[in-house]
Automatic annotation (TrEMBL):
Keywords: Glycoprotein, Integrin, Membrane
Pfam family, one: Integrin_A_Ig_2
Annotated protein name in UniProt: ITA2B protein
GN (gene name): Itga2b
Organism: Dryoscopus gambensis
The UniProt record lists the keyword Membrane: yes
UniProt-recorded Gene Ontology molecular function terms: integrin binding
Domain Integrin alpha third immunoglobulin-like: 83-171
Subcellular location, record wording: Membrane
């Protein structure tokens, strides 16, 4: 009939995490109680697709053969919002009309004007992420002509990177 807030205490029992909630005492024979539990569990990133809870009702009264127990499986749904930001330095580049690409040269300035593209991948949460793959397709050829000469590729923040074999083919 009335609603009461339960007092629950987490503890470890036999190597498992247990949350013990006291429903109150004494209870009348045949009493029916409905309990809504809201659990907040962290660190589920690598738990797979579901987590199972073992719920059991225990009485402190004389031993009862019906210590009701039930298994509840709840799907794990990770939520994280990723955001990709990018910049080119300089933002715009105009090639001079008198400039020509020098075949076979190992000097950087003979291959064009340096433009640096910087991409930042941010996790806006609320969950953490792992195993994220970012694929960038950079058009480096236009027909048989070099459009962008890809010089180098670098990362920061503990990321690993694999690149296309066309990276710095003339070894400038």
């Amino acid at each position: 009939q009335g609603q009461e807030k339960l007092s629950c205490n987490p503890k470890k029992e036999n190597g498992t995490h247990v949350v013990l909630c006291e429903l109150g005492n004494p209870m009348k024979a045949g009493a029916r109680i409905t309990v809504d539990l809201e659990l907040s569990v962290s660190g589920l990133e690598d738990m797979g697709e579901a987590i199972t809870f073992h719920l059991q009702l225990r009485s402190k009264n004389s031993p009862s053969p019906s210590n009701a127990s039930v298994m509840v499986t709840v799907p794990v749904e990770a939520e994280a919002e990723m955001e990709l930001r990018g910049n080119s330095l300089p933002a715009t580049t105009v090639l001079p009309t008198s400039w020509h690409w020098v075949e076979g040269s190992r000097r950087l300035e003979d291959h064009g004007i340096k433009v640096e593209h910087v991409y930042e991948l941010h996790n806006k949460g609320p969950g953490t992420v792992s195993g994220v793959t970012l694929s960038l397709a950079v058009p480096h050829l236009l027909g048989d002509h070099v459009l962008l000469y890809l010089l180098e590729l670098g990362t920061e923040g503990g990321m690993s990177c694999s690149h296309h074999p066309a990276l710095n083919p003339a070894q400038v």
